[in-house]
Amino acid sequence: MKSMGVGAASPFKDQLHSLTKKLLPWTIYAIFPLAIFRLYFYPLQLPPSSTDQLPSTSSTIITSSASPTHISSSKEQERTEDTPCDYTIGKWVHDKSGPLYNGTTCGAIKDGQNCISHGRPDLDYLHWRWKPKECGLPRFEPNTFLQLISNKHIAFVGDSMARNQLESLLCMLATASVPNLVYHSEENKFRRWNFPSHNANLSVYWSPFLVKGIEKSHQGANYNKLYLDRVDERWASELNHIDMIVFSIGHWFLHPAVYFEGDSVLGCHYCPGLNHTEIGFYDVLRKSLRTTLKTITERRGSKSNGNGIDVIVTTFSPSHFEGDWDQAGACPKKKPYSEGEKQLEGMDAEMRKIAVEEVEATKENAKHFAGFRVEALDVTKLSLMRADGHPGPYMHPFPFANGVAERVQNDCVHWCLPGPVDTWNEILLQVLKKWEGPSKRGE
Ligand SMILES: *[C@@H]1O[C@H](CO)[C@@H](O)[C@H](O)[C@H]1NC(C)=O
Ligand SMILES: *[C@@H]1O[C@H](CO)[C@@H](O)[C@H](O)[C@H]1NC(C)=O
Ligand SMILES: *[C@@H]1O[C@H](CO)[C@@H](O)[C@H](O)[C@H]1NC(C)=O
């Protein structure tokens, strides 16, 4: 398994030496995703073609009233009637009550994130609650959430972080009402659940760039190809059947890639041997989000072509490697960072900022569109403080059953479920409640 990853990484290894200084924050990502991500998504299989089958949905579209709010952008801290709580500033406090669900009660947790059933011995990470400075963040209320999404279709679109968040939500909702899996594609990259109790559908769409992309493969190129001016129709063609869409992307932008715009090559990231200009990935992420949000505004931004759509962009989710990803103790923390102990900086800060800025710009442009609401779910900082929340070696079951091996794979990117991602969905619920009506403000 390991050789598969290392083999894939070798083409740009040499370049790493010279670029290490400049690209230090990138290098660990550049190596890690290649080696590991494939294992998550396609365990022991060849990568699939990028033309994975589309799920066919047929759904009812329900009107949702439009009233833009500003919730998660980090603004000046004056709290008035019109300035709802800023959930980004706060601290993790110990909480006895623990999660709503566990790996036994929820069947929807991806193996690699089911830390409890994989034998993670320390369980203190389950007992923390996010306390925003300006307000309280209520514990997740599955029944309230289900009521708010009654007769709607909520789609999570993006990479494995989108899936991580979707599975957390699914597990929490399942404590109140049992969902049925009504569709899944061959490799579970596209799935849909139905909650018969509320005629609500939750789905997940694999689309790690949101724009059209061709993922690297064993047979084809060993870099991704991104077409920055075109959305990925695997999700976008379904827009007319979606009432709320949650985007979550980021880590796949660190992979080697060649970028196209129109018919020409814009540049690349880590593409030695190809005669293209290195342009990094920040502007590329920005263009992808811009193309995505613009397309939604065009296709669904007016009442005349549907009944409106709500868009959430989950901001970048930081990883926490403290050493080699394949050595024991790659993310060894057992407690969250305390307030002020860890600053949001470097790539994490930049990736977050790009998403927040693109959301704010879209709000500005979409003012005239009655049926379009968009908000950033700004989880970067609160997640950055949860170095204790990753599976680490418990991405595999009982990794130390036969003693500590010389090499052990660690996942310090995704989050254990239950875990910190549950908090993302607690905040998401508050966003939905505020959208629902001004009377619910300030809770
Ligand atoms: C949910 O999906 C089912 C098909 O599984 C469909 O019949 C129904 O109309 C959908 N409902 C909504 C609200 O999208
Ligand atoms: C999981 O939750 C169920 C139901 O609340 C409980 O009976 C069980 O003890 C829990 N298991 C763990 C490992 O916490
Ligand atoms: C690389 O591109 C430049 C500019 O497009 C061109 O002048 C040069 O010949 C190319 N080199 C190779 C090896 O293709």
Strand-helix topology:
Blueprint: H1 2-9, H2 13-19, H3 24-41, E1 90-94, E2 128-132, H4 142-148, E3 153-158, H5 160-174, E4 180-184, E5 190-195, E6 200-206, E7 211-214, E8 224-231, H6 233-236, E9 244-248, E10 257-261, E11 264-269, H7 282-300, E12 309-314, H8 346-365, E13 372-377, H9 380-384, H10 421-436
Parallel strand pairs: 3-6, 3-9, 8-10, 9-12, 12-13
Antiparallel strand pairs: 1-2, 4-5, 5-6, 7-8, 10-11
Helix pairs in contact: 1-3, 5-10, 7-8
The chain binds 2-acetamido-2-deoxy-beta-D-glucopyranose (3 copies).
Structure description:
- This protein has 443 residues and is an alpha/beta fold.
- It has a domain at 129-321 and 340-385: Rossmann fold.
- Helix content is 27%, strand content 17%.
- It contains ten helices and 13 strands.
- The strands form three sheets. It has a seven-stranded mixed sheet, sandwiched between helices.
- Helix 5 crosses helix 10 (421-436) and helix 7 packs parallel to helix 8.
- The longest helix has 20 residues, at 346-365.
- The chain is globular.
- Bound molecules: 2-acetamido-2-deoxy-beta-D-glucopyranose (NAG) (3 copies).
